[in-house]
Amino acid sequence: MSILRADSIRDRAGTGAPNFPNGATVTGVVTATSFSGAITGNVTGNVTGNADTATLATNAQGLTGTPNITVGNATVTGDLSVQGTTTTLDTVNLVVEDKNIGIGTTSSASNATADGGGITIFGGAGGDKTWTWERGSSSFVYSDPNKFKVVLETVAAATTYNSGNNLVLELDVRNATTYTYTIPTGANIGIVSFKNMPAFTGNANGTTLTCIFTQNAAGTGNTTGTTGIGTNCFVTGYENGAAVAGISTRALVGSGTTVTLSSTANDRDFVSFFVHYTGGTNTTATSYQVYATKNGGFRQGNVGV
């Protein structure tokens, strides 16, 4: 018999499904409302429905629908897209080849959507350990202290501009914490400006900035009390990704004196400023305190190499 045509095939009793003890080879399409048992060999085409009671061995090339599947080892040679609310990886080791991992993806990413994004290490009763982005202060926030083997600070060149009769030295807090500046001949720094000082309303903080001044060849820059560094300061706060209105103040210095530079040509002076934002209204002068101190008179020694 080469062709069997039938509308319905049952067992001998006419009440159940027929058995195929030696297997069956089908070259066309098989449609079934349910399946029970094991599938071995290659499965090509689309398998729909639930496959939680069957074993799909070797290849399942066209699996669609909403099946519940448990597999051992799996290799995905193409792109993998996972859609849902929660993805749980219950593994001992996670190895990722990509050297740059992006999180918080969205169609219109911004400081607002990034706020609170970061990494959480679950700590149980000891408390979670977090590293997150805080939009208000435009900085990363750590839940616990940090321990670094080595810290390398960015050294930037301080910039200047003229404001009326004053030469303004500008230190951008978001750019670096250590700066260099050479005093020009015949000029004094009139105002020290601290740009982009983190000032998230209600959250007090402080930052230390150091400027390495090199005296001019005449030894005349900022060497007297009336022209001391920090006698006039300008602070511009930074909150929620934008600068706020600046304030004018003067630095607090030790013993009621001003910070003056060495009068010896080409000497170097380290002047450190600590800018303290108290957490108050970030456009009010009383919300900021600037402290200034100097360690100076550095020059090349005449003993040694």
Describe this structure in words.
The N and C termini lie far apart (106 Å). This protein has 305 residues and is mainly beta. The protein has 1 helix and 16 strands. 14% of the residues are buried. It has 3 domains: 26-67, no CATH class; 114-142, no CATH class; 155-298, no CATH class. The strands form 4 sheets. Strands 7, 8, 10, 12, 13 and 14 form a 6-stranded mixed sheet that branches. Strands 6-9-11-15-16 form a 5-stranded mixed sheet, with no helix packed on it. Strand 12 and strand 13 form a beta hairpin.
Task: Lay out the secondary structure.
Elements: E1 37-39, E2 54-56, H1 111-114, E3 118-121, E4 129-134, E5 139-142, E6 155-157, E7 159-163, E8 166-172, E9 178-182, E10 189-198, E11 205-214, E12 233-239, E13 242-243, E14 247-249, E15 268-277, E16 288-298
Parallel strand pairs: 1-2, 6-9, 8-10, 9-11, 10-12
Antiparallel strand pairs: 3-4, 4-5, 7-8, 11-15, 12-13, 12-14, 15-16
